[in-house]
Amino acid sequence: MDFFSRSPEQTRRIGARLGGALQAGDVICLQGDLGAGKTTFVQGITRGWGSLDSVSSPTFVIVNEYRRAEGGKLFHMDAYRLDSMQEAEEIDLDSMLMEGALLIEWPERIDPLVPSERLWVRLEHMGGEEREMEFRSSGKRYDDLLEFIRHSIVGGD
Length: 157
What we know:
single chain, alpha/beta, Rossmann fold, 5 helices, 7 strands, globular
């Protein structure tokens, strides 16, 4: 599914719809160049998920952990600065997924470690404040999640 966002707030709203549907074990991959809107999208996801914490890019700390009042964790990982697959393995994605959902920026850098069932979102800066958002699902859970997002964005049966 492709969608064009006309503003940062629209990107956040789409993210919020996704965030409200996330469950522990969900993997959301966020691909896009610097400035493509990944962090803006994550701000929306965490808002919809109910995070008590503010969002910042985890570029230098690798993984940010967000929490919400009713419990649960949401992990936000940035694989951009990982130097090797071994370094990525040490982060232990499996233990994070047992505790919460995982958002991965620059997932293509660690693709062999990312579960094959996932939702992949590619963001591309189109000019001004416009972003193209391409959603691809892999696995029944993510097919259902993508259908939920499509329905919440464009409506219909």
